[in-house]
UniProtKB/TrEMBL annotation:
GO terms for molecular function: 4-hydroxybenzoate 3-monooxygenase activity; FAD binding. InterPro entries: FAD-bd, FAD/NAD-bd_sf, HB_mOase, RIFMO-like. This is p-hydroxybenzoate 3-monooxygenase. It comes from Novosphingobium hassiacum. GO terms for biological process: benzoate catabolic process. Transmembrane segments: none annotated. Pfam families: FAD_binding_3. Its EC number is 1.14.13.2. Keywords: FAD, Flavoprotein, Monooxygenase, Oxidoreductase. SUPFAM superfamilies: FAD-linked reductases, C-terminal domain, FAD/NAD(P)-binding domain. It is an enzyme of class 1 (oxidoreductase). Gene3D superfamilies: D-Amino Acid Oxidase, subunit A, domain 2, FAD/NAD(P)-binding domain.
Length: 389
């Protein structure tokens, strides 16, 4: 098979890129290792910046998002008894939208056949070749038969563990990484949220986050040491811990219910440079990971795709190579700012095992400053709604 862009991975980055390229008349194919059900079963992000909402609107695939998404005008930082509200809408004139990553993926997946976007699921042993030439290709196995797709470009949208990033030679690569000494234990339950806006809590027993996917579905998190096993956390134990860490007001409004999903996700900050090498462009988690504090992962994937779609479209429509040449620098400039915000918020809202009284005093001073300064709240708010692309 021949195409202009072979896209590896049918997560949000790959599907968004595929749809954007198709809409511009650029030929592409998406190759995914898993089945559609498996992809839709991964419970992940849920807070969308304007860039992500805008991309769905540009594709005309935002009908359900507009109908079912919850527009959020602010969020809260809790520190013991104190609740600091960041009035995002008043400070920035913008909002975020709560709409699950699985819903975005479903909307993109469902629209693919009608838009003529081929998505090959169940592709095994995907590998990329000749990325330093103008004729790269992808090989994979489908139902036991070897396959090959020749392309002009390959877009690596295959997440943190995919093969694309590994195809870039170590001699040109730079990696930056911070692994955190805890993970987030998440519980998803069909119960109404305890608050209409997110609450990030820094409690002496640890971090907690109250968030939601809809008026009837809640997503809560607590941080736990990486040695913890999910089997040791009954639903009751999680609800009890949440009630303590989120504080009495949130606890009084918290509805408990059986988990429909629970898991522990390790936290990591990671950036790979460059995001393009030869004919291979990396987008989303394939190139970078942020800790989920601040909800930047999915939104960064969306901004990468925005830049990548622009670069690829200019290449094929205008024979313009400049945007391709500039893709990595442009994407990385925004990536690093989101990494900074996610890292700062993680440091502010978690009790690190090695922290002593000084580090805690710094957290309190920082939260005091945020509570009393409109400038500090503005800085948080503009990062939260997403920096311009
Ligand atoms: C447990 C968890 C919780 C998260 N929570 C949040 C959150 O609350 N807020 C937030 O903003 N972000 C969160 N994130 C991050 C966010 O979900 C990601 O940033 C987002 O999924 C990135 O999209 P992506 O398309 O780049 O990568 P992915 O969603 O990882 O998609 C990559 C795709 O590539 C496919 N693939 C992988 N290997 C291959 C291969 N060899 N061949 C073919 N296909 C392959 C995968 O199956 C997958 O479908 C979370 C992530 C995890 C893991």
């Amino acid at each position: 098979m021949k195409t202009q862009v072979a896209i590896i991975g049918a997560g949000p980055a790959g599907l968004l890129l595929g749809h954007l390229l198709k809409a511009e008349g650029v030929d592409c194919v998406v190759i995914e290792r898993q089945t559609p059900d498996y992809v839709l079963g991964r419970i992940r992000a849920g807070v969308l910046e304007q860039i992500t909402v805008d991309l769905m609107a540009r594709l005309g695939l935002d009908e359900r998002l507009r109908a079912e998404g919850l527009v959020e005008e602010g969020f809260n930082l809790a520190d013991g008894e104190r609740l600091i509200r960041i009035d995002v809408a008043n400070l920035t004139g913008q909002t975020v939208v709560v709409y699950g990553q699985t819903e975005i993926t479903k909307d993109l997946m469902d629209a693919a056949p009608a838009r003529g976007l081929p998505v090959i699921y169940g592709a095994e042993d995907v590998a990329v070749f000749d990325i330093e030439t103008d004729a790269p290709y992808v090989t994979y196995t489908l139902d036991g038969a070897p396959q090959r797709i020749d392309a002009r470009f390959i877009a690596g949208c295959d997440g943190f563990h995919g093969p694309s990033r590994k195809a870039i030679p170590a001699s040109v690569a730079r990696e930056y990484e911070r692994v955190y000494p805890f993970g987030w234990l998440g519980i998803l339950a069909d119960v109404p949220p305890c608050n209409h806006e997110l609450i990030y809590a820094n409690h002496q027993r640890g971090f907690a986050l109250a968030s939601m996917r809809s008026h009837t579905r809640s997503r809560y998190y607590i941080d736990v040491p990486l040695t913890e096993k999910i089997e040791d956390w009954s639903d009751d134990r999680i609800w009890d811990e949440l009630a303590i860490r989120l504080g009495p007001d949130a606890a009084a409004n918290m509805t408990r219910g059986p988990s429909i999903e629970k898991s522990i996700a390790p936290l990591r900050s990671y950036v790979f440079e460059p995001m393009r090498h030869g004919s291979l462009l990396l987008c989303g988690d394939a190139a970078h990971i942020v800790p989920p504090t601040g909800a930047k992962g999915l939104n960064l994937a969306a901004s990468d795709v925005h830049y990548a779609a622009h670069a690829l479209t200019h290449y094929f429509k205008r024979a313009d190579n400049d945007a391709i040449a500039g893709y990595s620098a442009k994407a990385l400039a925004r990536v690093w700012k989101s990494e900074r915000f996610s890292w700062t918020l993680t440091k502010l809202m978690h009790r690190f095992p090695d922290d002593g009284p000084f580090e805690r005093a710094m957290q309190v001073a920082e939260l005091d400053y945020i509570a009393s300064s409109t400038a500090a709240q503005m800085s948080i708010a503009e990062n939260y709604v997403g920096l311009p692309v």
